Amino acid sequence: MHFSIPETEVRAGDNGSTYVAYNIHVNGVLHCRVRYSQLLGLHEQLRKEYGNNVIPAFPPKKIFTLTPAEVEQRREQLEKYMQAVRQDPGLGASETFNSFLRKAQQETQQIPTEEVHLEVYLSNGQKVKVSILTSDQTEDVLEAVASKLDLPDDLVGYFSLFLIREGKDGGCTFVRKLQEFELPYVSVTSLKNPEYRIVLRKSYWDSAYDNDVMDNRVGLNLLYAQTVSDIEKGWILVNKDQHRQLKSLQEKGSKKEFIHLAQTLKYYGYIKFDPCITDFPEKGCHVIVSAGNNELNFHVKLPNDRIKEGSFKVTRMRCWRVTSSQVPVVNGTANGSGKCEVKLELAFEYLMSKDRLQWVTITSPQAIMMSICLQSMVDELMVKKSGGSIKKMLKKRHNGSLRRSDSQQPVKSPPLLDSPDPNREPIVKLSSKLTSVTLRGISTSNSANDLSGNNFHGNYAFEGIGDDDL
Which domain of life is it from (predicted)? Predict the structure, then answer.
């Protein structure tokens, strides 16, 4: 998660006086608006719980009214403080920090605590309407949806809630995975745009975990619906013969066999991002980035209109970071309109060859979502490397907090697959490779080409993870 305080504003208080509000942005979007005194209260509470040695420095109080320059200095200091707290594994995951952000989000949007109905969508477009409180956090809403679908408690952690934006062409843009410090109802309603919706999807990358999910009827139906949806969107590459086989299995109702066949197809389990810009292999190249199979896959359009494809393995990334900057919005004049928009960039340092590291930058509004994907892939690899199970990554959920609904909702099967869209073929049928980056990552093999066992040190990523929160 990328925390920033890009701006301040002067607001009127209850007694007619004014105060400076600090706008906290998460992933480039306003999350809450807080006063210095509120952040000082958070700091004092964290200091009592964790001690002075753990808590980062907090900007001191001032006796006199701050000058504009001092307000700007305090803004920068508070931004660094919030980033430092969030980056610390203990502080950033603490209930004190997360509950502060949830309360501040609710107060900023001026949404009272009350019972409401929230619509959560499945991959096949089916709506699941759950009764929640506006103050319910992400985990509460996820459990309410699981309860409505009759998904077993031990499978809830295999799924997550995502905020997406539906496109007019039927496509969708992944905005972010909903986090523990936000209130899903407040997050989606505050956008005041019907194109935004909350969707339930699986939250792991390794298809081997599909078997755990498919052992349950509801889990199987959810995974099947997502697979059909990803094929229809063109995220999974399917030729005519494979499409015929899939449709035959679908007509027979053979959902497990359908998923097993889909697992063998290119880009199964990937998330596809909107077209954006990269500086690799040249500056200003248009690229479509997909995340999956422990890699970022690039479909790059070069200046000469040639299309190339390449993959960057997370096991060869030494580190990565997300940066944000304010860019003036040009309004047809030389000076622009005076307004600014947030520019997000994901940059990662990649081991191109034995002796050469190179920074690759992606400029995209979805840069933080890409970073979250990278981090979760590395988390899974770390669990595997330690010989553990994915269940160790899943937060323990207390059965007492589950909302068991009287009426449970079945997952409907999606309609039969349509024929492959010929308009997608120029995008997915790409054969030209970026040979400099299609390098092997961690393997179970002990051959000389296994990067985990030679001097290439292909698992650099395990040493330098976490810079995306800087």
Answer: Eukaryota
